[in-house]
Design goal:
The chain is mainly α. It is about 70% helix and about 5% strand. The chain is globular, with a radius of gyration of 20 Å. This is MEI1 protein.
């Protein structure tokens, strides 16, 4: 079925949302729900379909072309298609890297547009933001070096071989700029305050991957980002309201991040003791799977 469905997608236009959206979802489902052996073959089939990749290129570009003010409060068919497109491309990046699959057609992505989509949001639905952050995580984990992707944008187009004295940090973080990093971190912090479960999970995952990328590129910048005083206020905000427990997946993962990078001004021995005490008093067998996994990672890090 991958052959006819992917070929069908390649014959469509981005405006054919009624046909494209379930088709892209079907391709995405095949990548994630099949066996590892079949998964490798599925990736090869999709990456060998040039018309499909050209269609995905057009779909992603519609993220910046379709007017934000026209977006309704609910998820429109156009936005749903964009979500499917970003998630499918993020998955193709992941599995192409895993299996070293041959690439027959590259995708060109404007990094500045991707970052601005998260930084400024422009009334984008939560699910679309989550999908774009999934893509951003994929390229960060691969250090922007995927053979499937060509990165363009103001900073990416600048020559890294001829740095200006004031842009040494930008050169170390290439193709990111230091100002883009700080703006992205502030935006991720602000998105966490919304306390939407799906959004919170995506934001924390994106923040984890970003700091890991920074730590490899420039350790001082990574530690500076991880120790921002605003993070502590953010934790208290997440712990306010009806559910004040530390045993929330996003809170535990944030705490793990701060422990990993030794942000003692954000998380103290007192908070660590409180989490361990809560865990000791909880019925571990009844905790949701996401909470159990996050707690395991936290205790392992401690």
């Amino acid at each position: 079925l991958l052959f006819p469905v992917s070929n069908l997608c390649g014959k469509c236009r981005p405006r054919d949302t009624d046909l494209l959206q379930p088709s892209l979802n079907f391709l995405y489902w095949n990548l994630h729900q099949t066996t590892p052996c079949s998964q490798q073959r599925a990736v090869a089939v999709l990456l060998s379909n040039v018309s499909l990749l050209e269609l995905l290129q057009k779909v992603l570009e519609c993220t910046w072309l379709w007017s934000p003010p026209s977006r309704p409060a609910y998820l429109s068919s156009e936005d749903a298609l964009l979500c499917s497109g970003w998630l499918l491309v993020a998955s193709l990046l992941l599995y192409q890297h895993r299996y070293s699959t041959e690439v027959h057609q590259t995708l060109s992505i404007d990094l500045t547009e991707v970052l601005n989509a998260v930084i400024f949001r422009n009334k984008k639905p939560i699910l679309l933001l989550v999908s774009i952050m999934q893509f951003l995580r994929a390229v960060l984990r691969q250090n922007f070096s995927s053979s499937l992707l060509v990165i363009v944008g103001q900073n990416a187009a600048a020559s890294a071989s001829q740095p200006q004295p004031s842009s040494l940090q930008d050169t170390a973080l290439y193709p990111l700029a230091i100002q883009q990093v700080f703006s992205l971190v502030v935006s991720l912090q602000n998105l966490l305050v919304h306390k939407d479960l799906l959004l919170s999970q995506a934001v924390v995952a994106c923040l984890e991957t970003l700091v890991e990328y920074l730590y490899v590129k420039n350790r001082d910048v990574a530690l500076h980002v991880a120790s921002q005083p605003w993070h502590r206020f953010l934790l208290f905000t997440l712990l306010s309201g009806a559910q004040k427990s530390f045993l929330q997946p996003e809170v535990l993962r944030l705490m793990t991040l701060f422990v990993r990078y030794q942000s003692r001004n954000i998380i103290s021995q007192k908070e660590i003791s409180q989490i361990i005490q809560e865990a000791a008093e909880a019925n571990i067998a009844e905790l949701p799977e996401a909470t159990s996994c996050a707690l395991h990672l936290f205790l392992s890090q401690v």
